[in-house]
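Morning, I've got a small favour to ask if you have a moment. It would help a lot if you went through both lines with me. Thanks so much in advance, here it is.

***
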Amino acid sequence: MAAVDFYEKPGCIGNAKQKRFLWNAGHVLTVHNLLTEPWTPETLRPFFGDLPVSDWFNPTAPPITRGEICPQRIEADAALLAMVGQLILIRRPLLQVGDRKMAGFDLAVIDRWVGLAADSDWKQDVQTCPRTASSSSS
């Protein structure tokens, strides 16, 4: 069992599924509203580790789906500034256990890190937003 800080967009269907995976494995979650945290580039950067910059972004965020931001063409410092200015751009969830931080919810990575229940349904898509990309509530 791990104590997990889970940063989500309240009401996000995908985040609800992700939390169930963790709860079913016996983890204790402290849930935070990602959209009201006082993020800075310095506090946000550690969650992305060695992920490519394009993987730092929520691909269904309206500025991305409208073509205003291209995650494949943005430098790290500019990406962090954009995310701090528009929190909806941040890939969800952000997770922290102890000193380790990560973004996104890759089931295999989560299982190796904190463990998931043996009877977890690994076929579920827990990373893609189930709403359409045109939804403004991504």
